[in-house]
Give the backbone structure.
Amino acid sequence: MLRDLKEEVLEANLLLVKEGLVRLTWGNVSGIDRASGLFVIKPSGVAYEDLTVDSLVVLDLDGRVVEGPLRPSSDTPTHRVLYREFPEIGGVTHTHSVNATMFSQAGVELPCFGTTHADHFHGTVPVVRELTPEEVAEDYETNTGNAIAAAFRERGIDPIAMPACFQKYHAPFTWGKSALDSVKNSVALEVCAGMAMGMWRLRPETAPLPGHLLDKHYLRKHGPGAYYGQGKV
Amino acid sequence: MLRDLKEEVLEANLLLVKEGLVRLTWGNVSGIDRASGLFVIKPSGVAYEDLTVDSLVVLDLDGRVVEGPLRPSSDTPTHRVLYREFPEIGGVTHTHSVNATMFSQAGVELPCFGTTHADHFHGTVPVVRELTPEEVAEDYETNTGNAIAAAFRERGIDPIAMPACFQKYHAPFTWGKSALDSVKNSVALEVCAGMAMGMWRLRPETAPLPGHLLDKHYLRKHGPGAYYGQGKV
Amino acid sequence: MLRDLKEEVLEANLLLVKEGLVRLTWGNVSGIDRASGLFVIKPSGVAYEDLTVDSLVVLDLDGRVVEGPLRPSSDTPTHRVLYREFPEIGGVTHTHSVNATMFSQAGVELPCFGTTHADHFHGTVPVVRELTPEEVAEDYETNTGNAIAAAFRERGIDPIAMPACFQKYHAPFTWGKSALDSVKNSVALEVCAGMAMGMWRLRPETAPLPGHLLDKHYLRKHGPGAYYGQGKV
Amino acid sequence: MLRDLKEEVLEANLLLVKEGLVRLTWGNVSGIDRASGLFVIKPSGVAYEDLTVDSLVVLDLDGRVVEGPLRPSSDTPTHRVLYREFPEIGGVTHTHSVNATMFSQAGVELPCFGTTHADHFHGTVPVVRELTPEEVAEDYETNTGNAIAAAFRERGIDPIAMPACFQKYHAPFTWGKSALDSVKNSVALEVCAGMAMGMWRLRPETAPLPGHLLDKHYLRKHGPGAYYGQGKV
C-alpha cells in the first residue's frame, strides 16, 4: 500500500539524519496521499538506522492506523491536524534541530535577513504559543496542531508561502509540497536561524531583506514564473 | 561472563564516539548486572577504535577486578560509588563533551528551558562541588562519587528523575536505566546545554518551561503512563 | 568536449560538499577554458550526489548553452560576467556557507586578522552593494556580476590579490586561477569569517595583521618568489 | 630509513584530518629519531589524502634533506628549531585549528579552567610575540622557532609541562613525547580554547582551576606516579 509514498517518507526521514537535524530519535517526517486521504509516518521511538519501508505506519485523517505493525510517532496527531487544516501541503517535518529549537524555546521570531531565507520562506517565521494546562490535559498533540493552524488563520499567514513555525518552549514544525520538500524547509530553517544568531552578534541593528529582493528570490524558486532547477520539484 | 551486558557496554561506548561526545579517550561508559552485583567498564586509555568485548573490565562493587586483562578506566571508583548509592540505576556515562563541560567548569546550573530537556531531565540539572585538597589526596575518584551522592541526598534530588550532574571544574556525569540509556542522557545534556547558551544570547531573560509542560513531556516518556516509543526501553 | 575541465569542475563542486560549504543545492562552481572561451558549470537544482561529468553544462561567454542536456545554474550569468570582467581568473565559486553569508547579509567587511587570511586574500574582503529594484527587474543575475565588477573597478581592488567578495543580503562569491582554486578560496573565506567573529568576542579591539606579515604570507604562496607547495598549482 | 617513525608521522598527520584540526593543507606534523638526529615531516602543500609513507621528507637538524623526493613543509625550519631547543620532545604539530588560531590572532593566553586542560597542560598556555619586519626578512620560519624558544626560556616555562603556545597573528604550535602525542596536545588545545570562549560567555568572571586539582589531573597522567592508561604511552 502506498509503496512510492513510503519510499519517499523513508528517504525523507533518513535525510533528517544526514543533514544533522536529529539526534537520537528526536524527529519525524510524514507524507500524505491526497487521493486516498492516507498519510505515512515514522513509528515512535525507532532508531533511524533500523527504519525500513515496512516499519512505517499508514493512518487516515481521523487518526486510525490503517497499516503497520508499530505505534506511530507520538506527534502523529499534530501532523494529522496540519494535513486537515492546510489542504495544499503534502509533507510535514518535526525536529528538535538546535538553532530552530532555540528560537522556539525563547519565543523569538525569525525575520528574513537574506536570500537563503527568501528562497524558502516569504517573510518572518512566526512563533506559535505554548498550550494551556487544559489543552495539555485534554489532548496535547492534537491541540499543538490546532494552535498552529489557529495562529496562521488569525494572523492571515499563507501556509504555502510560510511553510514553518516555532512552537514556544518546544521546537519547529515545517511542511511542504511533499515529505522531502518539508525536510528541505527544515534544513533551511535551521541554517537561517543559526545565521540570524550570528548576524545579531556581528551587527545587532541589521535590517531585514528589502521587499524587492525577498520577492525576487522567493518567486525565482516558487510559483508560475519560477526558473530555478530543472522544471520539476 | 556477562556477555550480553558487555555487548551493550561496548555499543554504548561506541555510541559516545558516534554522537560526537568524546575526543581522544576522554569518556567512559559502564553497565551493571544487579543480580550478580558486577559491572562492566571501559579499560583506561584505550582508543575507541581498538575496543572489543574482550577488552572490557568486569568488577564487583568493592572495586575488585573480576575479569579482563587491562586496567579499568581511572574513573571506575566514581562509577562504583554511583551504583552503590543509586541502587535503581543500570548504567553510568562520563564524558568531557564540550557544552556540558563548560557548564561544569563554570559551575552553572542548567534550567529546563524546553521540551527536549523535559523529555530527559525533570527540572534543573545541578552542579556538584569540586573536591577539597584532603579529598583529592585521600581518594580522588571515590570521593568524586561521594560528592555527587551527597549533593543529591542533601538537596533531596531524585537521581531517577534527574539522571545527570555537572561536577565543578571537571565535567558531567549521567546515568540511566542501562548503559545505553545513560549515553542517551549524555547526548540530551550536551544538546540542552548548548541550546541554553544560545538562548541566553538570543533572549537573556528567557523563562524556564512552565510546570505543566515539564510534567507532560517527562511523563510522556517515563513512568506508568508513558506512551512514547514501542512499549519497551 | 573539454573533458579535463569538466572533470575538474565536477571535482570542485564535490569538494564544496566535502568541505561543508553547501547544504542541499545551495552552491555552484564553474571553470573556464580561456583558449576556446567556453566555461563549464553545475546544472541548476541538481543534487550533488547525482552530479556526473555529463550533467555539467558548457556555455560560451555570451551565455549560450553549447553542450549539456540540463539548464545551467540560475547564477550562471553572474559567473559569465566575472569571466568577462576579470580576464585572468579560471574558476568561480558561489556558496551560501554560513559564516561568509552572515558577513554578506550584515554587510560587514572582513579585515585580515591573521596569516590564514593572508595566505589567500591580500587585505580586507569587500562588501558589494545589493541591487536596486530596477536592476533586479531587468536582469538579476547579470547585474549581480556587474555590481561586483564595478565595485572592484571603482575601489581599485585587484581581483587576483582579492579573489572574494560578500554581496549584501546575499552570500559570497570567490574566484581563482582554476575551479579548484576558487573553491579553496571559498573554504579560506568561510574559516576566516568564522575566526573573525570569534575574535571579536574574545578581544573586540583586535588589530589587523601588520603589513609586513600580510605581505610575507601572501607572497610566500603567490607570485614569482612563492616557495609554498611543490612548485605547481 | 626510519620506517617506524615514518609510519607514526603519517598516522599523526592523518589524525589531524580525522580530528577536524585541518582544512585543505593547513597543518603539519613531524617526529624525530633522537638517536640519529633525523626528523620526518610532511611535504609542502600535498593533500592529506595523497600522503604516503614514501612522500614524507627526512631531514637532519641542520635542515638538510636526507631523503624524500618532495620539498618539506614550509614550516620545517620552525620544527627544526624546536627540536634543537627542546631536547626532550619527540614530535611537533602545527595547525590553523580555528579556536586555537583565534587565541593566536587575538594574542590571548588560555588559563587552565578545568581538568581537560590540566590533563595536558600544566597551567596557562602562553602567547609568543609576532616577528619584526627584520626577522621576517631574514628567515621567517627559523625565527618563528627562535621566538618560541626565547619566550619559554625568558619566562621560565618548562616545555614538557607546557607543550603548546599561540603565536601572535598566526596559529598554535604544540609538541609532545612523540608525533602522535603532539597531535593529541593539539586536539586538547583546540577543545580547551573553544570551551574557554564558551565559558567567558556563560560566566565572564570564571576562576581558573584551583592548584590542587591542576596538579592532581596533570600528575594522574604524567610523571612517575601516573596511573591513567595501561602503563605505556
The helical segments of chain A are 3-18, 76-85, 98-106, 115-118, 133-155, 179-202, 211-221. Residues 179-202 of chain A form the longest helix (24 residues).
